[in-house]
Amino acid sequence: MAEGVLFNVAEGIIGQLGKLALKEIGLLWGVKDELEKLENTVSTIKAVLQDAEEQQAQSHAIKDWVAKLKDILFEADDLLDDFSTEVLRREVMTRNKKAREVRIFFSKSNQLAYGLKMGHKIKAIRERLDAIAADRKFHLEERPRETRVSNRVRETHHFVRAEDVIGREVDKKVIIDRLVDPKIEENVSVLPIVGIGGLGKTTLAQFVFNDEEIKNHFEKKLWVCVSDDFDVKIIFEKIIESSKGKKPQNLEMNTLINDLRKEIGGKRYLLVLDDVWNYDSQKWDSLKKPLLCGARGSRILVTTRDEKVAKISKTIESYILKGLNEEESWSLFKQKAFEKGQEPENLRIKEIAKEIIRKCKGIPLAIKTIGSLLYFRNLEEEEWLSFKNNEFSKLDQNETDILPTLKLSYDHLPPHLKQCFAYCSLFPKDYEFGKEKLIKLWMAQGFIRLSSQNQLEDVGHEYFMELVWRSFFEKAKDHWWITRPRFKMHDLLHDLAILVVGLESSTFGINGENIGGKTHHVSIGFDLSTSSQIPATLFEANKIRTFLLPCQAWHPQQMVLNQSTCDAFVSSFMFLRLLDLNMTGIRIVPHSIGKLKHLRYLDLSSNDYIKMLPNSIEKLQNLETLDLSYCYSLMELPRNITRLVNLRHLNIDDCNSMTHMPHGLGQLTNLQSLAEYVLSTGPRRGGELKELHGLNHLRENLRIKNLRHEKNIELECKAASLKEKRHLEELALEWIKGDANEVNVGYDEKSIEALEPTQNLKSLELNSYWGVIYPSWLSSLKNLVHLLLVSMKNCQHVPPLHQFPSLKTLRLCDFPSLEYISDSVNLPPLEFLLIRDCPNLKGWWERRKDSIVEDEDDDNDYVFLPSFTHLSSLRIFYCPKLSSTPLFPER
User: Fold this and answer.
1) What is the mean pLDDT of the chain?
2) Is residue 519 scored above 90 in pLDDT?
3) Both ends of the chain: CA-CA distance in Å?
């Protein structure tokens, strides 16, 4: 079991008791005394939990005591959640029901019966806890527990910058020499990089992959992460996606191979297959055969921990990667352990640090994690010496196992971070996750505790960033189509998460055989992607709190549920806090879902056939996140959705059949994210823009759809108060499509001016705007990173790009009147440029006599596109007047 879980459950129980006391509900229903006794008991147990959790590894008696305690604490937590939910339900009914119904509901007999029943349950739980508390014959110590450990704060740029590659210049040169060696006779040869986990094989491969000599030598460069799942078809799909920049859609194997040959046939390519575990020679031959169509000099670079893999795949002698030397290890350690990477003035601390480094055996991952751990220590000799002699000296680590070192870093996490990290064992290896979604998952389990007036999401951000700073999470590769960064866990850290979580969590396909009554969190592995049945063993864990289907791009279908199976599933797990049914193919959401009163997170996304939600969903008063994105047939939200008073995140992104928003949505003042707001276009009038007025906590992204091209619409637009939504990062404004010739362009120009957003915006989309001029506020968006302009029927130019100094992505689509893009040579650091359906576009800028770029052909009325220093992807489609234009000038 993950350490820290019980402490946080106990803390949550005390928190719930405090909230109930504030409402004086215990006094009202006659259970005040029992609640106070329960609080005293839990507080007594909480004080010794740290000592008990640390000692249980050495004592079976303590381990049994902790196991018994765990079961009862979870029961107490569920019982109090029942109680809190009932209190909340009565508050909502008081607000929404008619007076007569409220009087009946709150009659003395009703209250007395409920109070008597609840009092007996609380007393029974409390007496069992008292018995366990009295059974402490192990001399457990009471210790205060810290909730924050950091007393030094790094500067912001240290948090986000990519790690410098240290000590791999020689390795890089040797590998590049082998890859470009003209003496190798095979058309396509394979070079494996072999080394233990944590050595930095992937980092070295990236170092090679991005080298200028490699860029110039190979016509195609392709990168594929293979990991545990050596599925030949999936690997081909990934190769094609790496080449084309988009995923192939449901192609048969023969079609995939034909597409693959079109991409690499006759070309000298470099393909990196990262993290390969398969040593089945038949599978390897099936993969390699279609890859032999490359031109002479093509290379496949394989990274693997297993020498057997290298043996069956290699045609060039494997490169055995070694650890860093002492100087390189010290250089890496300094980056992680000391402020700004500066050596400590105290020479004794430096000596102690170097002794610690030697035990890391030159393994970069071990050095980084220990360095990150020590960063949060005071620079005092006694403290560092104590760490070396007492904790670090106990490590029994050989050269092929760094888990003990990583476990030491885990041991030093505060309890709230331990359970947050361990929860990530539910993800598959190499799974890429977004920060915002993971924080919502943590919130659903009650892992995030408010310590001030900050929002839960802000505290969750602090938790997340602490795990990033301590090297438990790392940033994944950027993609132009993803506006927010993605993260992942190193394979070894994923192994560590599974190790520390024990029976608390289970993933089918990895450790599903351990599932049972002790399991509280479950996820489904990809090996069940074609199954329509929930594994029978899952029903043994009838008190699970998490059912997760972690969706990965290459495994879009997790599990298909027929309706009866879905109904049975929802009815069987009444203690769920998180229910994920994304991409399960369900057509009707069971009415019984309203009985899941503990539910905080409900994901119904990517279910194409759901048209309506049951009215019973209004009973989920604890619900914080409702994800309905990509439910293409969903027509409307429940009328009484305003009863979900705790709702913080409502995601209806790309629900294209949605006709309107319900009235009263503005009452949900806890809302933190609302992906889309759909204005009514038909006879049924829904909520108007003024509903957004008070929702000033909105963050992440917001798309307003069906803005009308009407006179006097600016008053309604102004009522939305977008400028006050200071946490909003992405905004899309989408007008109703139609015939631009029938509309007065001035209407749109006034409405867009009234929709002025916060200056903190990072992404902006304007879609079907029929005005001629851009709004005055556009030039104030100095933080803009992504700009998308679509169906700008009357605009003849793009806003001056030099006013967006941070702009990295520019997309121009369906721009019929556009002839030239810019008249400035001061361009932002664009990395991705897409131009589509611009039939009159002639060039980047119009040629002038004083133009810096000269066009030698006087017959042409266009000028070359400028040379972008940072541009990594340029895509141009259906722009006939650019067809003969050289896209870049010669350098």
Assistant:
1) 82
2) no
3) 60
Report the run of H or E that residue 304 belongs to, with start and end.
strand 298-304
162 vs 142: CA distance, rounded Å: 42
Q: Looking up tokens 């002479």, which residue turns up? A: 296
Nearest in space to 475 (alpha carbons), one of 467, 486, 466: 486
Q: Which of 510, 525, 512 is nearest to 555 (CA)?
A: 525
* Residue whose C-alpha is closest to residue 797's, from 812, 810, 785: 812
Mean pLDDT of 347-366: 86
State whether 22 and 110 are in the same domain. Answer: yes
Whether 261 maps to a domain, the answer reads yes
Q: Could you give the angle at the alpha carbon of 360 between the alpha carbons of 356 and 362, nearest 5°?
A: 120
How much is the average pLDDT of 545-551? 87
The residue among 154 and 282 whose pLDDT is bigger is 282
E strand segments, 65-208? 188-194
> Phi, psi (5° rounding) for residue 322?
-105, 170
What is the pLDDT, as a whole number, of residue 157? Answer: 24
DSSP 58: T
Helix (H, G, I), strand (E, B) or coil at 806: coil
| Total domain count, the chain | 4
Cα distance between residue 304 and residue 195, in whole Å: 7
Give per-residue pLDDT as tens, 113-138. 777 788 888 888 888 888 887 776 55
Best mean pLDDT range from 119-128, 371-380, 596-605: 596-605
pLDDT tens-digit map of 635-691: 999 988 999 999 999 999 999 999 999 999 999 999 999 999 999 987 677 889 999
> What pTM, to 2 d.p., does this model score?
0.77
Q: How many residues does the chain have?
A: 891
**Is the separation of the CB atoms in 73 and 9 below 8 Å?**
yes
The DSSP output letter for 539 is: G
Of the candidates 311, 314, 306, the residue with the CA atom closest to the CA atom of residue 194: 306
Query: What are the CA-CA distances from residue 763 to residues 197, 748, 809 (Å)?
Result: 38, 20, 9
Instruction: Provide the CB-side half-sphere exposure for 532 (13 A, CA).
Output: 7
Residue 689 counted as domain residue: no
**H helices, E strands: number in the chain:** 26, 24
Closest listed residue to residue 193, CA positions, set 270, 273, 296, 292: 273
356 contact partners, CB below 8 Å, separation of at least 6: 370, 374, 387, 388, 392
How large is the angle between the packed helices 491-501 and 415-423, nearest 10 degrees? 110
Instruction: Give the model's pLDDT for residue 308.
Output: 83
Task: Return the HEC string of 193-207.
Answer: EECCCCCCHHHHHHH
CA distance 564 to 658: 27
CATH of the domain at 245: 3.40.50.300
**pLDDT surpasses 90 at 858:** no
Closest CA to 713 of 731, 733, 698: 733
Residue 477: CATH number of its domain: 1.10.10.10
Which comes out higher in pLDDT, residue 205 or 102? 205
Q: Establish if 476 belongs to a structural domain.
A: yes
471: amino acid identity, one letter: S
Residue 554 gets the label, from left (phi > 0), alpha (psi -120 to 50) or beta, of alpha
Pick 855 or 703 by higher pLDDT.
Answer: 703
Q: Is residue 663 within 8 Å of 685, Cβ to Cβ?
A: no
Q: Are residues 125 and 11 in the same domain?
A: yes
- R_g of the chain, CA atoms, integer Å: 30
Class of residue 685 by CB neighbours under 10 A (exposed 0-12, middle 13-18, buried 19+): exposed
Distance CA 590, CA 596 (A): 11
Q: Which of 391-405, 532-546, 816-830 has the lowest mean pLDDT?
A: 391-405
State residue 7 phi and psi, 5-degree precision: -60, -45
**Angle 688-735-764 from CA coordinates, rounded to 5°:** 100
The 220-227 sheet, strands edge to edge: 220-227, 269-276, 298-304, 188-194, 319-320
Please list the residues that pair with 650 across neighbouring strands.
626, 674
Show the tokens assigned to 14. 């005390």
Phi, psi of 492 (to 5 degrees): -70, -35
